[in-house]
Amino acid sequence: MSGFLESMRCSECVDWGEKRNTIASVAAGVLFFTGWWIIIDAAVKYPNMEEFNHSYHACGVIATIAFLMINAVSNGQVRGDSYSEGCLGQTGSRIWLFIGFMMAFGSLIASMWILFGGYVVKEKPVVYPGIAVFFQNAFIFFGGLVFKFGRTEDLWQ
Amino acid sequence: MAGIKALISLSFGGAIGLMFLMLGCALPQYNQYWPLFVLFFYILSPIPYCIARRLVDDTDATSNACKELAIFLTTGIVVSAFGLPIVFARAELIFWGACALVLTGNTVIFATILGFFLVFGSNDDFSWQQW
């Protein structure tokens, strides 16, 4: 009876180390597309300009462009240990990533500004569109972070 | 023979899922056929992964960027299939009961598709690898 459980190790049934990139991709996809469906829901519920100004959609579009920019360069390219130089080299990829992160943070800050400046301070009767814009941008931002830093590039070799 | 058994059980699962979807549409107290649009998501969901598998020869690496992008897009399609009936229900186009039936059908169908890839994506005796 002793030593009964010694041969059972649950961490070896499923190798989480090899599954890490898959899990990170799934989590990033859930976050990103949940964000977009939240804003679709708000746009469906409040279609007129008084309750939900259509220009507020620009915030989520910028966040999506930032998501694509951040994830278009690999970490190896920024560190400079990739095989090829690419079209602009290490400096170009750093500047590209810098602009991408700036757009990501900018859209997150802008969504908070929309929530407070457009809905809370004006004391509008319906606050839900502002909250939807904020949650959309937060979900897209954290989805981008998970997709960028949750995956490891050691599995690609 | 194992392949035949798996195929039959998977097709049973697909039929159950489609039954839930049609129940959400066609029951007399619901009678709204808007949820049938999730059929597009069912068809689209395996496509990114199939493209990535054809595009990349995964002989040495355990994972690569193209496959992870495909998994990301597949997740997006699955999330969209769950989001669409919820938005329909919130827009009061369909009832919440119909929405729940469609979500149940979604779960069964996507589990079936995942099972299809797990069963036929790995073993070599069934030569459907050319997909």
TrEMBL record, chain A:
Keywords: Membrane, Transmembrane, Transmembrane helix. It comes from the Eukaryota. The keyword Glycoprotein does not apply. It is a multi-pass membrane protein. It is found in: Membrane. Pfam families: UPF0220. The keyword Transmembrane applies. One of its GO terms (cellular component) is membrane. The chain crosses the membrane at residues 21-40, 55-74, 95-120, 126-147. Belongs to the UPF0220 family. This is Transmembrane protein 50A. The lineage of its organism: Eukaryota, Metazoa, Chordata, Craniata, Vertebrata.
TrEMBL record, chain B:
One of its GO terms (molecular function) is identical protein binding. Keywords: Membrane, Transmembrane, Transmembrane helix. The chain crosses the membrane at residues 7-30, 36-56, 68-88, 94-120. GO terms for cellular component: endosome; membrane. Its main location: membrane. The keyword Transmembrane helix applies. It is found in: Membrane. PROSITE patterns: PROKAR_LIPOPROTEIN (PS51257). It comes from the Eukaryota. It is a multi-pass membrane protein. GO terms for biological process: late endosome to vacuole transport via multivesicular body sorting pathway; negative regulation of growth hormone receptor signaling pathway. It holds the Pfam family Vps55. Negatively regulates growth hormone (GH) receptor cell surface expression in liver. May play a role in liver resistance to GH during periods of reduced nutrient availability. Belongs to the OB-RGRP/VPS55 family. This is Leptin receptor overlapping transcript-like 1.
